[in-house]
Automatic annotation (TrEMBL):
Domain of life: Bacteria
Organism: Enterococcus diestrammenae
Domain NIF system FeS cluster assembly NifU N-terminal: 10-91
Name this protein carries in UniProt: NifU family SUF system FeS assembly protein
Pfam families, alphabetized: NifU_N
Gene3D superfamilies the UniProt entry points to: 3.90.1010.10
Family matches, as CDD domains: IscU_like
């Protein structure tokens, strides 16, 4: 079966983010940190976030994962820099709905991560795609709930 030109473009964007991920590494200084893994396939992400005045100023991730997991983490970091932390829950839910094949009216808010809508055709890859988003949501929620203090580095290990 031949891929349409649009499918080829989406595939190229995913391969580019997987091969050359944006914001990969460590911040050195971060206010939030979380580590999560997907036990189904072995993906692991360590996420560091610098938050100031309720806004994500910088973000970095490291770990190991499949091409979908890595591409999604790269796209997520691009999409959330400059966003208010109180937007992260909505963006995470929006992305989750998108990769599950649901209609997402404001999907453009996800930036290039919108191209991962095709993951819905591969249900076993949904956890791979959502790992980074769940990690960010967890870090932000723990910070807002008082579990984490936004002035200090916190480490959390959990399965997605």
């Amino acid at each position: 079966m031949a891929l349409s030109k649009l499918d080829n473009l989406y595939r190229q964007v995913i391969l580019d983010h997987s091969s050359h991920p944006h914001h990969r590494g460590s911040l050195g200084k971060s206010t939030l940190s979380v580590q999560m893994n997907n036990p189904t396939c072995g993906d692991v992400i360590h996420l560091e976030v610098e938050v100031a005045d309720g806004v994500i100023k910088d973000i970095a991730f490291d770990g190991s994962g499949c091409s979908i997991s890595t591409a999604s983490a790269s796209m997520m970091t691009d999409a959330v820099i400059g966003k208010r932390v109180d937007e992260i829950g909505d963006l995470t839910l929006m992305f989750s709905d998108l990769v599950q094949g649901k209609e997402v009216p404001e999907a453009e808010r996800l930036g290039e991560a919108e191209v991962l809508a095709g993951v819905s055709k591969f249900p076993t890859r949904i956890k791979c795609a959502t790992l980074a988003w769940k990690a960010l949501n967890k870090a932000v929620n723990e910070s807002e709930s008082g579990v984490a203090d936004s002035g200090h580095l916190h480490n959390h290990n959990e399965e997605a």
